[in-house]
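#random but structural
TW: two for the price of one
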Amino acid sequence: MEQLAFTALLNRLFGVPVLALLQALHIHPKYPATPISNSFAMELLVVLLLTIFFIAVRTRLSVERPGGLQHTMEFIDGFVNNLASETISQHPEKFVPYLTALGMFILSCNLIGVVPGLESPTADKVVPLGCALLTWFYYHFHGVRANGPVGYLKHFIGPQEGMPLVVRLFLPILLFPIELFSHAARVLSLTVRLFANMFAGEMVTLVFFSLVPLGIPIIFEGLHIGVSFIQTYIFVLLACVYLGEATAHEH
C-alpha cells in the first residue's frame, strides 16, 4: 500500500496501539506494519476539519452581525431542511441534524481528493458501505420508533384494510420476501453508486495527470468537483426518501 504523508504520520504515532487493538478484536490487517489505511486516515482528517469548522461557526454565532461561516452553515441547514420537508411527512425537522452531518461528511470526503497529496476516502468501497449501513439502520430504527414493531412490519406485507380474505392471506407471503430483498439491496445501491462514481473520477484524473501533467487534467478536476456535489445530493435525497417511507403511518 502506497501511504499518503498523513497516513504515514498516523502510523508512526499510533500504528502500534492500533495494531494491538485490531489483534485483540481478532482482526488481522493486510499490512501489519501500517495498520492505518489511507481511507481511514482521510476519514479522520475530514472529521477533524469538520469539527474545527463547527467550532468556528459556534464561536462566531451572532444575530446582529452574522459572518460568512454562519451564512454558509445557515444555507446548508436550510437546503437540507427544505429537502427533508419535501420528502418526509412526519416531523422532518428532527432528521435534519443527521442528514446535514451525513451530507457534509460525504461531500468533504469527496472533495478532499482534489487537494494534492490527499485522496477521497469515498473512492474506497469501505467508506460508502459504512455510510450506507449507518443510514440503513437509522431509517429502520426511526421506522420502528414511529410506527411500533407491528405497525412497521405492515410496511412489508402490503395493504390489508378493505382487502378480501384471500388477498390478506397470500399478499404478505408474496410481498414480504420482495420487500426484504428490496431493503437489503438499498445498502448495495447506496454503496456502489457513491463508490463507483468517486473511484472512476479518481482514476480518470490520475490517468490524465500521468499522461498530460498540465491543462487537460484541470477539466477533470472540475468534473470531479461536480460529481462530488451530485453524488452527495443523491445520497442525502435517497436517505430522505427512505426515512419518509419508514416513518409514514401504514394508512
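TW: number two ↓
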Amino acid sequence: MQYSMSKGILSAIFALALFSILGSMTLHHVYGDGFTMENLPPATVGNKKIQVFIKLTPPVITSNTNQDKTMFLRIFDANTNETVQKYSLWIEITKGNQLLMRDLFSTNTGTITLKITPTDTIGKWTIQADQDPQLSSWMSIGGGPINVLAPILKEGGLYHIHLELSTIDFLNNLFTPDTAPKFDSYLSVGDISNHTITYNNNNYNSEIISYYDKINNDFSFDPSKLQISYSMPFDWNTTRFQDRPIFVHEEIHIPKSFKEFTSTPTYVASVNGDPITGRRLIVDPYSLGDTVIAHILLNKIDIQNIAKNMPPGTNTMDFQLAPAVANVKTSSSVLTDFGGWGINLGWSPIQITPNTQNNLKLTFFDAFTEQQVTGDVNYDLKILDSDGNTALSETGLKAKGGIDTQPINLPSNGIYRIEINIKSIVNNGIPDTSRIGIGRGDLVIPSTVTSDTICTPNTTCVPEFGPIATLVLAIAIISIVAVSAKTGLRFMPKY
C-alpha cells in the first residue's frame, strides 16, 4: 500500500477528534545533531521522564553501503530505565526541504524496528505491516521489523528525524498536538565523493568521506601549496546546537603513490582559516596499505570556538589540508574515528626515552560531553613502528571506571603510532558494543610530552579533557552519537 501526505492529514484530523486525557503533560522538545544513534534527553510526561533511544544499523552507513539498513526506536522511563510497552509515535523523516516519509506507528512491546529499503521517488513511501484499527497506525507483523520502502538512507548527508508521541500506555491516552512530546534527531549517512588530483602531469584518485553532510561541488587542489580544499554546508548559529551534541568527522583519502603529498608524517589543516591541530587532525598511513587517511575530528567545543570568529552570513565549513615539514609530537589525547570517545594519555615520566619503562595512563571520556566514562572499558592497545610493524600489542585490556595504566618500554628511537581499539563499555554489568572505534595518536622517542589545551566557550582555557566541573560549564549533553549529522544511531547510555 502506498501513502503520501494525505494519510498524515487524515490521521491528524482523527487525532483532533479525540480529547486527550493527558492534557496536563508537559511539552518538551529535545534535539541531537549529527550521528547514527542517539539517546535523546527526556521529556516530562506526568511522573515519568520519557526518553527516546534511536539507532541506525549498520553503525557506520555511507552512500556505498549495500547491506540491510534498519532504524530501531525504544521509549523508556529515564527514572527507572523501564521500557514503555505501549505507545503510538509519528515518525517524519526529511532531508533538506524534502519530505521522505511521515506515518504513525504503534507497538505493544516498547520497541519499533523499521527495515528500510531505499527507493527513488521523493514524497512517496510504502509500509508493509499490520494496521491498528483504532488509530490506523502501523504495527509489526508477528513481532518482526516493519518494512518501509522509501527514499531514505540512500544518499549521503543529514537526515532529520522528527518524532511526536501520539499515545502512551493506552490508545485512548491521546496527546493533543500542543502537548505531545516532540523529539528531533539529525542522523548522518556518510557521503563518499571521488576526485582526481593532477600534479606534475600525473593523475591521482582521491576520496573524501564526509560523515556530517554532503560536500559542495568545489573540491580543488593547489599544486603550488600541495593543498586540498573543499567545503560543505554548515549553519554556524551555535544556538541551534546549544542543548545537543554535534560532531564533524571528515576523512580524506590520498594514494601513497602521490609521494609529494604522502611522504611526510605531519600535515597542516584548517577549518575556515582556523588551524586544526592535536587530536583534531589524525593521519593514518596504516589501515589501508596503499592509502593515507587524514581524519578531521571536531566536537562541540571545537566548533563553538571556531564560530566565535565566523563572519555573519557564513554558511559553509571550509576545509584545507596540506603536507607539512615533519614535526611529530607525542600525543596527550586522541579521539576515536567512530563511537565518539576521547582518551587522555598521561605519560609518566613525561620524558620518554628508549629502553626505559614509561607508564601510560589512559583515561576514557565521552567526546560529546567531555565527561569521564565511569563504566569499565574493554579495549586493545597496539603500537606500530614507522613501517607499520607491530612493536607492542596487548589485547583484552580493561579500564575499570574508565581509567587504566599500561607500561610502555620500546627499544629504539623513532616515530610510533598508538592505536586504542575500544570494543565495549560495561555499565551496571551490561556491555554496550554500539560505540566501537579506534583512537590513533603518535609516540615519539625521545620526546617530552606537553598537553594540548583548548578554550571553552566561556573563554576559560583548560587542559584538553580537563577537570569535569569546568567542562560541564561549556557543554549540555548527550547521547549519543549522533546526530545525527553525521553522525551516525546507537544507544548511548550514560556512563
